[in-house]
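Worked example 4.2. Below are the chains of a multi-component assembly; read each line carefully before continuing.
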Amino acid sequence: MGAEFIGGTRVVAQPVLPIIVWGPDGSKGVGVRAALVDTGADYCTCPSRLTKPVGYRLRSGTPVEFHGAAATGKAWKHSVDISIMTHDYRGTFHRLSDVPFHVVQKRNPFPVLLGREGFLDQFVIHIDFENKLFTLELP
Amino acid sequence: MKNALHKQKAQVIRVPKEYAGEYVAWSSWHSRKIVAHSKDPSEAYENARRSGAKQPVLMFIRDPNMVYLY
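Applying the procedure described above to all two chains together yields the following structure tokens:
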């Protein structure tokens, strides 16, 4: 699906979710307004500088080789609790525990990517780009 | 986008063009005012906390001309 223009602004529909990434002790969380649903990714991935303020120490995770579609490198695997917000942001739609997250030490910022293992494989997902409809359902 | 039983009108988030390639921070989910921005999400988070936000909300702005629908 190509980009559309509304009032001179390029509009691209992307499947994203508002989430909270909880720290290891569950007391602090960082809200992420638009975590990108990446059906081609094996794992959830995020920059280390995003998880640092809520208490994750990068190298306390398990070192893994990170193989992305366009890049490879070193990452550290952490178990992360995630809350998916409802769309009015007034509550939690669902909370997932111990989601394997590849935390990447990379200079260039990039969005939080929600991949298959431990996250997308917990849901039934439909993406209808034609009608700009992304459906996430609990099985 | 909808999830399970929830349906919602598409959300439109507009940010100044100079924030391209940066993380921006709001003080809460319902706030419209950007309180911090940085290429370093840690710095954006901490600056938002210093401005009084208890649980800052971040978003990476890949292209400010792009409007995300969800």
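Take a moment to check your reading of the output against the notes. The radius of gyration of chain A is 16 Å. Chain A touches chain B at residues 3, 6, 9-18, 20, 29-34, 47, 49-50, 52-53, 84-89, 93, 108-112, 132-138 (CB under 8 Å).
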